[in-house]
Amino acid sequence: MNPSTVDTHCPYCALQCGMGLAALPAGGVEVVERPAFPVNRGALCGKGRTAPEVLARGARLTEPLVRGAGGALEPAGWDEALDRVAEGLLRTRAAHGRDAVGVFGGGGLTNEKAYALGKFARVVLRTSQIDYNGRFCMSSAAAAHQRAFGLDRGLPFPLEDIARTGCVILVGSNLAETMPPALRYLTELRERGGTLIVVDPRRTRTAEHADLHLQPRPGTDLALALGLLHLAVAEGYLDEEFIAERTTGWAEARPGVMAHWPELVERITGVPVPQLREAVRMFCATPEGMVLTARGPEQQSKGTDTVSAWINLCLATGRAGRPLSGYGCLTGQGNGQGGREHGQKADQLPGYRKLDDPAARAHVAAVWGVDPDDLPAPGRSAYELLDTLGVEVHALLLMGSNPVVSAPNAAHISERIASLGFLAVCDVVLSETAELADVVLPVTQWAEETGTTTNLEGRVILRRKAIDPPPEVRTDLEVLNGLAARLGWEKGFPTDPEEVFEELRRASAGGPADYSGITYRRIAEEDGVFWPCPQSSSDAAHPGTPRLFLERFATPDGRARFVPVLHRPSAEEPSADYPLHLTTGRVLAQYQSGAQTRRVRELNAASPGPFVQLHPQLAERLGITEGDRLAVTSRRGRAVAPALISSAIRPDTVFMPFHWPGEGRANTLTNPALDPTSRMPEFKVCAVRVEAAGPA
Ligand code: SF4
């Protein structure tokens, strides 16, 4: 290996694949394999392999921009840009009060940035109005985790356990496209004799690897899980001993389960009873099994209850809190896990502490050197915050997110953003949201800075700086420090990531997500450390916790909790005017809003634009042929994209990927109906009609 190669991690998804970055003689870096990193063992998808292309000058921002008198964004110096931001935030606060200033973060920010941004909002701006786009990612699974287990860590076991269990039910995850190196855990599972059941309305590339593919109507996963548990009860698969010794609440949950008899579940979901029986037989045929969910069941207005139904299946059959068994969530964004632990969520403080807990407030306030009574109350969730822009929140500082493309009901949210009195955006590229800003601050990216992230396993890892950024680019931490000084915060904000991490360790100590025993040195030496990892009082360092709940769950009595849940319809069901389901998702060559990956030539060539996937029967009924321009209309708007005709999708459902702005923006259509517990919008199902759009 080139001695100048720097070990680091991919900037994109929650797998956080290990990679090396080697300096090129002509400048820049190239990606090289890092086979020793256990998560991906050198494998990378095209997104990770091509990530250095976004480091190049032509692809990214290299100087601050401010909106000039003529209305256009114009280059400016850093002092002018930061002065403009401070003035915009102060002016808004003076006119409308502290909570008229909002902060919107991102699940791709490092732990240090997420921590610093949450602290900045609470102690410098003293606003309650902070949330982040991770709310749109895994918040339903997080809420269900908390309800059942008393603690939310996406996977309570390492990825390697997936390959060694007996059966995996994978619900609403197309990981063969979203995180391809993770597919090997499922192929290893099957090579060892285990089985894979995939639940998805589409026969995805992932579903092609399944022993059994269940293809329910969008929005009916909750009924499906209840139906499987009903059959597990009926066929004698309950683990009575486990239920008695390690759980509470089965008596309350059981009636709802028994009300979902197989024929009813077939009517709701469209999954035939024999397939339901086969799934139960496969899942219960071996003593170990797992259920893994992703955005499919989670991004629903009943997402938390849906995940609870799958957790109930695990608990009732004794497949939780035991080796090689359990429920897990495949978090999506690069730091989707760490980003939700350290304080950029509306109701949280660092260490996964609750903002409304007096003891938590006292602990964190002491670390920050402020009075606990001065910390704001919990604020609005992400969609609710975006929906009140220009109405109650008049200025916004946005870091690492592109809601113009990625928010539900995106045309409405774009209008709300455009109505702001002041918008500042910190980003690597001029995203569609940054185009609306009064000030755009160009910041460093993954290979240009050091910082930690926490992958979907709860493994805290270290991204290392491999290359200097362009001279006119600053780090997000430097931006916050510069703004804090201008806003009257005299104690300074650390700009050295390791110094921030040391403060984060103290702030998280004793909390649910305890990082106090984790150091940069340990992460480097151990290929990551799993939280919780408290600081040891003895000489022996705490080893970290790869596997949770083996002895007890994190509830006060140590038992997992069944949550009684019932099927209910989606917020929108098909009707005469809108007769089809729309579901949305990602494709192999693009990532999230596409702000970075749409700037990479190879990825753009592979996936140049949106499409509408529809079944041949539906295409024939509508008189549509492959490539025709289709107009998809929901109660919120209209999107246009070419037809992709495929028998991989149900005839009553169409699918659109959500990576693109403009007329093909899928999120123009999606429904912001919120889950009452997690405040997750219903991205994954709404009602639409489809018709030929005619020529452009
Ligand atoms: Fe990056 Fe995810 Fe691809 Fe790995 S799977 S290379 S982390 S985008």
TrEMBL record:
Tree of life domain: Bacteria
One of the Pfam families matching this protein, by short name: Molybdop_Fe4S4
Annotated PANTHER family: NADH-QUINONE OXIDOREDUCTASE SUBUNIT G (PTHR43105:SF10), RESPIRATORY NITRATE REDUCTASE (PTHR43105)
Keywords assigned: 4Fe-4S, Iron, Iron-sulfur, Metal-binding
Sequence intervals crossing the membrane: none
SUPFAM superfamilies membership: ADC-like, Formate dehydrogenase/DMSO reductase, domains 1-3
PROSITE patterns reported for this sequence: 4FE4S_MOW_BIS_MGD, MOLYBDOPTERIN_PROK_3
Matching CDD domains: MopB_CT_Fdh-Nap-like (cd00508)
Protein name as catalogued: Molybdopterin oxidoreductase family protein
Gene3D superfamilies in alphabetical order: 2.40.40.20, 3.40.50.740, ADC-like domains (2.20.25.90), Dimethylsulfoxide Reductase, domain 2 (3.40.228.10)
Organism this protein belongs to: Streptomyces fildesensis
Domain 4Fe-4S Mo/W bis-MGD-type residues, every copy: 3-59
Taxonomic lineage: Bacteria, Bacillati, Actinomycetota, Actinomycetes, Kitasatosporales
